[in-house]
Design a protein that fits this description.
By secondary structure, the protein is an alpha/beta fold. It has one domain (3-294): SGNH hydrolase (Rossmann fold, 3-Layer(aba) Sandwich), CATH 3.40.50.1110. Helix content is 41%, strand content 10%. It has nine helices and seven strands; from the N terminus they run αβααββββααααβαβα. A five-stranded parallel beta sheet has the order 2-1-5-6-7, with helices on both faces. It has a two-stranded antiparallel sheet with strand order 3-4. Helix 1 packs antiparallel against helix 9 (276-294) and helix 5 runs antiparallel to helix 8. The longest helix is centred in the C-terminal third of the chain and has 25 residues, at 211-235. The two termini are 13 Å apart. Pfam families: Lipase_GDSL_2.
Length: 295
């Protein structure tokens, strides 16, 4: 067996072990050769309030310990550019995004023909998923054991949130086509969203989502991730599932176990966003996907 093949298999084993342990970043010793890595995305990529926060611009709330930064340490590319920004929507991939005390340039402008790795995670803000959770939390006060949020969003006979996901799908497809056009030689990976809620019941009032709405909202998140996976497949790019591996790591779990903070964070992170442990886990999952592509 060639030396390069042995190194690749060693890297697969190392990544797999790390993903199972989810304790430390993967060693860069046998990492796939990446020369230029560009990270695109919204707040689930940027890592708002996870120390330390970058200032380029400060309003993006971009952490130097988010999953792209951790992945870059594993891969040690010659060039790494993270242009993810909290609050980003699909339009911000091609237009400037106004943020507090500054502006984030169009994210796709970071792509060049010599880019050889791109990760992208966006569309949650287009669907409005996190604000919906906040609205559902308020609704739970009046009916903690019912499903007031589902009732509100399906009142007209059509599920408004499902409609938003369906309308966002072709825009994600168009975005991925633009990424491939600007970086034709790059390996492109769409990164799914970490699980937010447990499958059923929840943990009201610790996380104030009515019991009947937990399964409803979890189903919507599965639909959102499924849409991203489908669009990635249609575009001929990779998809990294972070939802399934995060079972038992949702907002209802104890500090130190959960990968996503609740409406009242218990670790430095934005409400209903990944914490440092979640970012470490996603970096390992993306690294594992890269390793499998080399095997």
């Amino acid at each position: 067996m060639a030396v390069s093949a042995l190194l690749r298999r060693a890297f697969v084993l190392l990544i797999t072990t790390t993903t199972a342990a989810l304790a430390v970043p993967v060693s860069a010793g046998a990492a796939p050769a990446v020369q230029k890595y560009i990270a695109l995305g919204d707040s689930f990529t940027a890592g708002p309030f996870i120390p330390g926060q970058r200032t380029d611009p400060i309003g993006c709330l971009r952490s130097d310990r988010n999953y792209p930064s951790l992945l870059a340490k594993q891969l040690a590319p010659a060039s790494f550019v993270d242009v993810s920004c909290s609050g980003a929507v699909i339009d911000d991939m091609t237009s400037p995004q106004k943020v507090l005390l500054g502006e984030n340039a169009p994210q796709l402008d970071a792509l060049t023909p010599d880019t050889d790795l791109v990760t992208v995670s966006v569309s949650g803000n287009d669907v409005g998923f996190v604000p919906v959770l906040a609205t559902c939390a308020l609704a739970s006060v009046r009916d903690p054991f019912g499903n007031p949020c589902k009732d509100e969003h399906t009142a007209g006979g059509t599920d408004e949130l499902v409609r938003r996901i369906e309308q966002t799908a072709p825009r994600v497809g168009a975005l991925l086509a633009s990424v491939k056009q600007r970086a034709p030689k790059a390996k492109v990976l769409v990164i799914g969203y970490l699980r937010l809620l447990p499958p059923t019941n929840g943990c009201w009032p610790l996380v104030p989502i009515a019991r009947g709405d937990v399964a409803y909202l979890d189903g919507l998140q599965q639909r959102l991730n499924g849409m991203l996976a489908s669009q990635a497949t249609s575009a001929g790019v990779g998809y990294v599932d972070t939802y399934a591996p995060s079972i038992g790591r949702d907002v209802c779990q104890l500090p130190g176990t959960k990968w996503v903070e609740g409406l009242v964070p218990t670790a430095p992170a934005a409400p209903v966003h990944p914490n440092a442990a979640g970012m470490t886990a996603v970096a390992a999952l993306v690294g594992s996907a890269l390793a499998r592509s080399l095997d």
